[in-house]
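Second attempt. The first submission of Gamma-butyrolactone-binding protein had a stray character pasted in from the spreadsheet, which I only caught after the job came back as garbage. Lesson logged: always re-copy from the clean sequence file. Corrected sequence (219 aa) follows.
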Amino acid sequence: MQTRETLLQAAAEVFDEYGYAGASINRILKRAGLTAGALYFHFESKEGLARAVMNSQPDTIVPWLDSKGLQRLVDITLVWAQRLQLDPLLRAGVRLTNEQTSFGVRDASPYDEWAGIMAECLHDAHARGELQAGVDPDEVGEFVVEACTGMQMYSAVASGRADLMERVTRMWRLMLPGIAVPAIVARIEVGADRVRTATAAATAAASAAATGPGPESAS
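This time the job returned cleanly.
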């Protein structure tokens, strides 16, 4: 699995820098420091590698956040906005998903997966009594993905995504009063302070998972 992850990370960096058309197999192999045989053992083609990068987006964020309901939904979008400025794998996934028709692919599954994750948060929020009557979790989940997709494209052109966090924060300040009960609107944390809290927790969880259990937990 380490070889596959090395290839995925190298491919993400090259796709992020050059796009699909400019990302040659040779460039990816040189970045990874691996052979063509290693690549084709794990991925059948450059397109297969691109699809794997596209579909890896949620894995960089979602498993490491432990908040619940609407706060989890907000946290995912805030950390996503922050990680887009730092993580080549996430950036490449977003870029390839947007570019995919240019290399003959029409695959909505990355959007659908994000929409399912958002809807899951909203169904949890509904069960916790956080949503107003009549709010459809699936409909709102899909809308959040649509809104974030448009925001990051606008922000990429306007500021190189430097203002993406501000845009996401504004989205929630406008949206929350329309979907959440008043007591929850007042409790949901949105903005830079929440990003620091959520990313610190996510980073700690990811690091702990990467290093594995210590001697005490393994015994």
